[in-house]
C-alpha cells in the first residue's frame, strides 16, 4: 500500500495537495543489499538515513496539514529502509511499498492523474536516495533495484527531467494539471568516471512526455546538491538537506505576508524565502557537521506560499560590539517600534550577546556612557529582525 | 495620502542610476508595498519601515513617520558608509565568500584542490586571450588586438573594460597547471562590459563580469546571490523595459536578454510578448536571442517554431548566458527524444546533432554561474586538462603585471 493518506472524498472535489515521497536507503544490488550483486557499484554503498528522511518529510506534512496552502488530499509514499532505520523508526515497517522502479513509475502515474483533477491542485514531490548525473545540469534518481546485473547501468533510475516534463500542462485544452508543483531532489549529483568514458546513458522514461501546451507552472526544483557535488546525511538520522528544509519550513525560512482584514499579519514560508533561508541553513549545517553541501534552485521559480505559520517565528540574534576595546564604555539598548525597551545591557556580558527575539523591527543602540571617550561613537540603527538569524555588529569606530 | 520618495546615499557604492528594490512594511511587519527606489509610493499617515536590499545581501531599514500634513517625504536609503557587511557571519558575507569560491569550484571539480592557502603570492602568472567567433562551429579566433582599457581597481582585483563586437566574445584565462577557463563577455557591439579578475589565495584567478547596463547588472547580481525577491522587483524596473531597450538609439540586447532569462526563470512568459522575436531577428550575432525565443515559444506550446529557433544556435554560437545553454540542452534533449511524431526527420536529425554538440560543452560549463563559463584551452574543444605549457604561450596579455601595479 503506497497511498498512505487519501482525503479526496472529504474534499468533495475541492483542490488539494497531492504528495509523492520516495526514499531509498536499501539498495538490493549494492554491497550488503542482499540481492544479486551488481557488476559495478560506482563506489556507492548502502545508505543510512534517506528512507528515514522520506518518512520524516511525510510525518511533517501530516503534523502540519492545517498550515499548508491547500488541504492534504493524497500522500503516496515509497520507502526502502535499511534495517538500522527500521530499528530507529519501527513505524516504517509495513507502512508502504518499496521504492523500486516499478512502484515509482506506477505511483507517479497515479499521482499525475490526481494532479490532473484541476489546475488548482498543488503537488509536492520529495526524493531522497542515491543520485548521479550523466553530464552537468542533469539529475538521475536511483531506486532500490538499481544496479541489477541483468539490466543496463541505469535501468532502475528516473531522471528529474522526465518527471518534470511529464507533469507539464497538456497540449489538449480539455486536459489540465496542477499549476503549482514543488520538487525536492535530495541526492548526490556526481558523474561516476565510467559515465564519461561511455556513450550517453539512456534512462527509460516512467512515461512518454507529450510536448506540452502553454507551460505557466509555479514549479521550483530544490536540488540538495549542485551539479558535480555530493549530498550528505547524518547517519541514522536524516539528510543534511532535509534537516535544513524542515527547519526552514518550521519558521527559519518564514517571512511576513500581507495583513488580513482583521489587521493580523500572517507569516509563511514562500518559494523565495525558502530559497534564501536554505542557503544559510545548509551553510550552518555544513559548519556544524563539517559538510560541503551546496544546494541549488532550478525549475520555474515564481513565488508562492508553501507553509503558513501560526505565529511570528523566534529569531536568533547575535549582538557584537566592534571594537571590543569599547566594551567597558557601552550600554546596549534594544527597543521595539513603539519605543518600548526590550533589552538594556550594561555591561554586555557575555559578549557577543546571543538571545532570541520574536521577528519584527527593533532599534539597536550602543551608547558610549562611561565616560564618553573618543575615538568611539554611538551606534543606532533599525534592524529588520527576521529568520533565520540576525547578526548585528555595532561599529563604534568613527 | 503622502508621496514617499527614495534617494540613494552618496556612499552606496552603487551607480546613481541604480534602482534598488524597496519594501515598505507596517511596524507589525505587514507588507504594504514592494517597489523600486526610482518610484514613489502613496501612503496613508502612520509609521512605516522602509527596507532596501543591496546586491551583497545586506538589508538597511529606516523608520518613517508620515503626518497628515506631509505632501511628500524623502528617505535616504543608504547612509554614508553603509555599504559594508555588518558582520563576517552575516548572510551577505557568507554569500560573498561563497561566490568568490564559485570559480574555484569549477576548477576543483576538474582537479584543482589547492585554493585554501594563507598568503597571496607577490607575482601572479596569468595571461588573458580574447576569443571572437562561434565556438560551436569552431569558427573562432584569438584576436591579436585586445581592445580593453584598465579601470581603477581595489587591491587584488583587475578590472578591464572590453568593447563589444557583432560576434560572441570570450575571455580566456590561462594559468600554469590549471585548466584554462573561458568566460563570455556579454557586450553589445557599440557598448562594453567589464571583466573583473580577482586574485584568490595562492595566486589563482577568479573572473566575474559587470554589465554595462546598471539595472541589468544589478538583476544579474541579485540572481547570482539567490535574492529572488529583490531580483523579482528589479526585473520590473522601467529601465529594463524591453520595448524601450530594443528600440532606443543605443539598443541593448544584452540587458534585454538578462530580463528575458529572469522572466523565463520565474515562469512569467506572458510578460515576454513578441519582443523576444525582435531580440532574435534584430541581432543575428547574438546567440541568446535564439535561445530565449526558442524557450519562449516552447513555453507557449509552439514547439515546431521553438525547434526552428534553437536550430539557429549552431550558426550563431554558444549562448553568452548559461541559462541559454541550459534551456537549449533541455529542449533539444526533449525534442530529439520525444518529437518523432511532431517534427520532420530532417529537423530531428539536426536537433540530435546540435544536442550532441551542446553536450560536449555541458560537461565543462559551470551552471552555477549566470554568465557562460567553461574550461578548455581550445574553446571549441572544451575539456578539463590543466595547462602544462604556460611558458610556451606567447600571445595574449600578461595580466599578472596588472595585479602588481594595481596593488
Tell me which oligomeric state these chains represent.
heterodimer
Proportion of helical residues of chain A: 10-25%
Shape of chain A: globular
Rg value of chain A: 24 Å
Q: Biggest sheet of chain B, in brief?
A: 6 strands, antiparallel
| Count of DSSP H/I helices of chain A | 8
Portion in beta strands of chain B: 15-25%
Structural class of chain B: alpha+beta
Question: How far apart lie the N and C ends of chain B?
Answer: 52 Å
Given helix and strand content, the structural type of chain A is alpha+beta
Uncertain runs of chain A: none
- Molecular shape of chain B: globular
Residue runs with pLDDT of under 50 for 5 or more positions of chain B: 80-118
Describe the structure.
- The complex is a heterodimer of chains A (398) and B (407).
- With 398 residues, chain A is α+β, with helices and mostly antiparallel strands.
- Chain A is 21% helix and 31% strand.
- Chain A contains 8 helices and 22 strands.
- Chain A has helices at 8-11, 50-63, 83-88, 101-115, 160-166, 193-197, 240-252, 271-289; strands spanning 3-6, 17-24, 72-80, 122-128, 131-132, 140-142, 157-159, 180-186, 219-223, 233-234, 238-239, 254-259, 265-270, 296-300, 305-309, 314-322, 330-335, 341-345, 353-358, 360-368, 379-385, 389-395.
- In chain A, the strands form 6 sheets. Chain A has a 7-stranded mixed β-sheet, sandwiched between helices. Chain A has a 4-stranded antiparallel β-sheet with strand order 18-17-20-21, with no helix packed on it.
- The termini of chain A are far apart.
- Chain B is an alpha+beta fold and 407 residues long.
- Chain B contains 12 helices and 17 strands.
- Chain B has helices spanning 91-109, 214-224, 228-235, 242-247, 253-266, 275-282, 287-299, 303-310, 313-316, 322-338, 345-362, 400-406; strands at residues 2-7, 21-25, 31-36, 41-43, 46-53, 59-66, 72-76, 127-134, 139-142, 148-151, 157-163, 169-174, 181-184, 192-199, 205-211, 373-375, 397-398.
- In chain B, the strands form 4 sheets. In chain B, strands 8, 9, 12, 13, 16 and 17 form a 6-stranded antiparallel β-sheet that branches.
- The longest helix of chain B is centred in the first third of the chain and has 19 residues, at 91-109.
- Chain B is globular and about 70 Å long.
- Classes of the chains: A alpha+beta (398), B alpha+beta (407).
- Chains A and B meet through strand 12, helix 8, strand 14, strand 20 and strand 21 of A and strand 5, strand 6, helix 1, helix 3 and helix 10 of B.
Amino acid at each position: 500500500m503506497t497511498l498512505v493518506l487519501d482525503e479526496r472524498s472529504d474534499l468533495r472535489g475541492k483542490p488539494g495537495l497531492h504528495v509523492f515521497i520516495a526514499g531509498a536507503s536499501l539498495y538490493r544490488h549494492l554491497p550488503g543489499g542482499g540481492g544479486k550483486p551488481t557488476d559495478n557499484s560506482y563506489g556507492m554503498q548502502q545508505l543510512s538515513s534517506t528512507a528515514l528522511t522520506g518518512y520524516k518529510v511525510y510525518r511533517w506534512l501530516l503534523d502540519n496539514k492545517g498550515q499548508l496552502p491547500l488541504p492534504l488530499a493524497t500522500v503516496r509514499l515509497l520507502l526502502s529502509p535499511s534495517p538500522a532505520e527500521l530499528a530507529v523508526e519501527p513505524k516504517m515497517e509495513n507502512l508502504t511499498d518499496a521504492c523500486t522502479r516499478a512502484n515509482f513509475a506506477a505511483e507517479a502515474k497515479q499521482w499525475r492523474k490526481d494532479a490532473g483533477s484541476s489546475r488548482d491542485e498543488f503537488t509536492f514531490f520529495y526524493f531522497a536516495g542515491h543520485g548521479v548525473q550523466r553530464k552537468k545540469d542533469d539529475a538521475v534518481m536511483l531506486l532500490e533495484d538499481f544496479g541489477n546485473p541483468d539490466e543496463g547501468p541505469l535501468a532502475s533510475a528516473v531522471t528529474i527531467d522526465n518527471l518534470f516534463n511529464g507533469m507539464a500542462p497538456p497540449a489538449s485544452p480539455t486536459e489540465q494539471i496542477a499549476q503549482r508543483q514543488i520538487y525536492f531532489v535530495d541526492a548526490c549529483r556526481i558523474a561516476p568516471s565510467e559515465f564519461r568514458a561511455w556513450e550517453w546513458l539512456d534512462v527509460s522514461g516512467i512515461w512518454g512526455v507529450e510536448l506540452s501546451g502553454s507551460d505557466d507552472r509555479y514549479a521550483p526544483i530544490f536540488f540538495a546538491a549542485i551539479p558535480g557535488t555530493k549530498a550528505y546525511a547524518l547517519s541514522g538520522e536524516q539528510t543534511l538537506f532535509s534537516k535544513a528544509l524542515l527547519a526552514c519550513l518550521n519558521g527559519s525560512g518564514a517571512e511576513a505576508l500581507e495583513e488580513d482584514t482583521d489587521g493580523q499579519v500572517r507569516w509563511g514560508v514562500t518559494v523565495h524565502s525558502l530559497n534564501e533561508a536554505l542557503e544559510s541553513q545548509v551553510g550552518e549545517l555544513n559548519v556544524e557537521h563539517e559538510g560541503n553541501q551546496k544546494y541549488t534552485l532550478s525549475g520555474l521559480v515564481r513565488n508562492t506560499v508553501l507553509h503558513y505559520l501560526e505565529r511570528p517565528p523566534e529569531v536568533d540574534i547575535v549582538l557584537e560590539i566592534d571594537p571590543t576595546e569599547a566594551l567597558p564604555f557601552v550600554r546596549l539598548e534594544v527597543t521595539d517600534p513603539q519605543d518600548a525597551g526590550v533589552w538594556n545591557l550594561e555591561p554586555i556580558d557575555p559578549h557577543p550577546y546571543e538571545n532570541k527575539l520574536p521577528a519584527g523591527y527593533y532599534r539597536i543602540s550602543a551608547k558610549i556612557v562611561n565616560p564618553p571617550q573618543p575615538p568611539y561613537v554611538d551606534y543606532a540603527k533599525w534592524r529588520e529582525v527576521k529568520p533565520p538569524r540576525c547578526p548585528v555588529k555595532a561599529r563604534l569606530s568613527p | 495620502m503622502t508621496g514617499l520618495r527614495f534617494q540613494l546615499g552618496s556612499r552606496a557604492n552603487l551607480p546613481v542610476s541604480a534602482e534598488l528594490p524597496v519594501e515598505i512594511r507596517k511596524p507589525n511587519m505587514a507588507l504594504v508595498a514592494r517597489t523600486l527606489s526610482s518610484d514613489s509610493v502613496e501612503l496613508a499617515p502612520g509609521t512605516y519601515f522602509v527596507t532596501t536590499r543591496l546586491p551583497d545581501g545586506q538589508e538597511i531599514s529606516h523608520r518613517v513617520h508620515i503626518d497628515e500634513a506631509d505632501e511628500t517625504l524623502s528617505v535616504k536609503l543608504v547612509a554614508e558608509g553603509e555599504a559594508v557587511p555588518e558582520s563576517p557571519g552575516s548572510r551577505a558575507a557568507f554569500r560573498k565568500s561563497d561566490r568568490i569560491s564559485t570559480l574555484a569550484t569549477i576548477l576543483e571539480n576538474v582537479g584543482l584542490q589547492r585554493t585554501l592557502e594563507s598568503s597571496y603570492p607577490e607575482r601572479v602568472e596569468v595571461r588573458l586571450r580574447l576569443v571572437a567567433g562561434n565556438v560551436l562551429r569552431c569558427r573562432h579566433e584569438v584576436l591579436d588586438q585586445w581592445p580593453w582599457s584598465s579601470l581603477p581597481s581595489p587591491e587584488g582585483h583587475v578590472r578591464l573594460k572590453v568593447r563589444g563586437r557583432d560576434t560572441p566574445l570570450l575571455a580566456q584565462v590561462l594559468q600554469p597547471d590549471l585548466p584554462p577557463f573561458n568566460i563570455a563577455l556579454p557586450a553589445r557591439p557599440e557598448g562594453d562590459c567589464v571583466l573583473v579578475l580577482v586574485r584568490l589565495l595562492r595566486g589563482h584567478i577568479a573572473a566575474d563580469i559587470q554589465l554595462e547596463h546598471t539595472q541589468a547588472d544589478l538583476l544579474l547580481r541579485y540572481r547570482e546571490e539567490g535574492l529572488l525577491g529583490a531580483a523579482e522587483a528589479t526585473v520590473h524596473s522601467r529601465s529594463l523595459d524591453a520595448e524601450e531597450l530594443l528600440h532606443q538609439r543605443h539598443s541593448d540586447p544584452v540587458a534585454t536578454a538578462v530580463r528575458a532569462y529572469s522572466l523565463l526563470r520565474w515562469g512569467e512568459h506572458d510578460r515576454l510578448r513578441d519582443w523576444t522575436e525582435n531580440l532574435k531577428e534584430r541581432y543575428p550575432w547574438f546567440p541568446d536571442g535564439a535561445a530565449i525565443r526558442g524557450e519562449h515559444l516552447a513555453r507557449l506550446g509552439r514547439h515546431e517554431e521553438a525547434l526552428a529557433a534553437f536550430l539557429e544556435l549552431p550558426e550563431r554560437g554558444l549562448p553568452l548566458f548559461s541559462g541559454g545553454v541550459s534551456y537549449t540542452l533541455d529542449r533539444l534533449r526533449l525534442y530529439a527524444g520525444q518529437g518523432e511524431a511532431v517534427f520532420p526527420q530532417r529537423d530531428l536529425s539536426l536537433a540530435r546533432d546540435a544536442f550532441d554538440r551542446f553536450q560536449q560543452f555541458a560537461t565543462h560549463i559551470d551552471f552555477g554561474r549566470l554568465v557562460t563559463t567553461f574550461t578548455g584551452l581550445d574553446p571549441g574543444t572544451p575539456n578539463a586538462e590543466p595547462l602544462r605549457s604556460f611558458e610556451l604561450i606567447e600571445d595574449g596579455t600578461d595580466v599578472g603585471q596588472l595585479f602588481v601595479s594595481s596593488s
